[in-house]
Amino acid sequence: MAIEQHRDVESGDATRLQGLHEPFIQPEEASACEEVESDRTIAENGAIGMVLLSTLVAVCGSFTFGTCVGYSAPTQAAIREDLNLSLAEFSMFGSLVTIGAMLGAMTSGKISDFIGRKGAMRISTGFCITGWLAVFFSKSSYSLDLGRFSTGYGIGIISYVVPVYIAEIAPKNLRGGLATTNQLLIVTGASASFLIGSVINWRQLALVGLVPCICLLVGLCFIPESPRWLAKVGREKEFQLALSSLRGKDVDISHEAAEIMDYIETLESLPKTKLLDLFQSKYVRSLVIGVGLMVCQQSVGINGIGFYTAETFVAAGLSSGKAGTIAYACMQVPFTILGAILMDRSGRRPLIMVSASGTFLGCFLAGIAFFLRDQSLLLELVPTLAVTGVLIYVAAFAIGMGPVPWVIMSEIFPINVKGTAGSLVVLLNWLGAWIVSFTFNFLMDWSSPGTLFLYAGCSLLTILFVAKLVPETKGKTLEEIQACISS
After folding, report:
1. Taking burial as the number of CB atoms within 10 A of a residue's CB, which of 65, 68, 137, 242 is the most buried?
2. Which of 165, 183, 161 is nearest to 53 (CA)?
3. Which residues span the membrane (predicted)?
4. Whole-structure pTM over 0.90, yes or no?
5. Domain 272-487 homologous superfamily, CATH
6. Rg (the chain; Cα; Å)
7. How far is CA 181 from CA 166, 177, 269, 333, 414, in A?
8. How confident is the model at residue 110 (pLDDT cuts 50, 70, 90)?
């Protein structure tokens, strides 16, 4: 399972990670004067209908991603009761989605290169459907875990191929806005699981998870394959037809088609990098920043608090976790949108430092609530304080700690190592997600206030790390960023 498996997006290393998190970073594109004419032609002809339809279909996969991630939060108590699961067994169930996603992410590059972006989305949907059905029919922890792992593998592929597909089909003047929908639909899917799971049982919620999968499968029949992938594999006639379908029959695509072909030739001429190449002195600082940001993102505990929200609220003294879970779900989407708006206005570093300050405050307040509960002090304030802390935490995370590390990562690596470096960083991110989601219940059982204070401490370390090592990338070309990192 070589890390190099992830190489390629717009036919190579260059746009793979840029596509994954490009919604908020386009300074280098703005300066590309030769592309303005092409973009203006597309906009004037209004030939974006197929692009919008294709994006809408693709983000059904993003919604599936979100529903999988959000599934365990509202269902923990019911699943444990119905299937008589221990805390350890449910923790394994909750965390298996991240193990599957790690494997899915590691193989997604090869799969999407071999059978295309649409083919990869079909494969991922098949795994998700199989997983949801296994969960629905589960009578024991074995089939439950198998289903969770299968959905995890499916969303691991989705996490790569959906944003890549969107980045490859969108005209440059629309790419930022369209790519933003990927992240927004992930958060929306998670919130939908939280909300729907609060009013139906866990088996019914598994069936609900099938809906976006079916929508994606049906929708794929009506949208074109990625033109860039078709060009890469030498299917020139289909490449021309797909690009014409996306841009409109009356739009001259010759300039864009020539650019794509030239870019593919340029990328294929670059030397292929291996994992060990990343540890050369000229890449070390970028690697430290990319890996460090992902460690910081996961170490503040988002996958623990997010996966087991309902039980956390119950442990704090609420009679039911439903109200808190609903509030949690309602906070995610608007603050994710706000973070997208602020990304290119406030800058990356200030936004992530403010966000980390918010996660610190949220964890600290929730930790105080659990401390007061353990000491039997001010018990009437404990539930309110805990809910307030968690809601501050999720709002703060959504506005910065969630999206910003991915954006910075997509900007800091030189073009010739982006594929390999990005694969390593994505893999480590999923590994961190698994560690946090698997250990959360055990840590909370050991010491609830201690666990939350630990996450609060990690938030402070994040602020320090960003202040000392992470450069500001707002408004800089990729070449200027490289010069800043190398200086």
Report:
1. 65
2. 165
3. 50-73, 85-107, 119-138, 150-170, 182-200, 206-223, 283-305, 325-343, 350-372, 384-408, 420-440, 452-470
4. no
5. MFS general substrate transporter like domains (1.20.1250.20)
6. 22
7. 9, 7, 33, 11, 26
8. confident
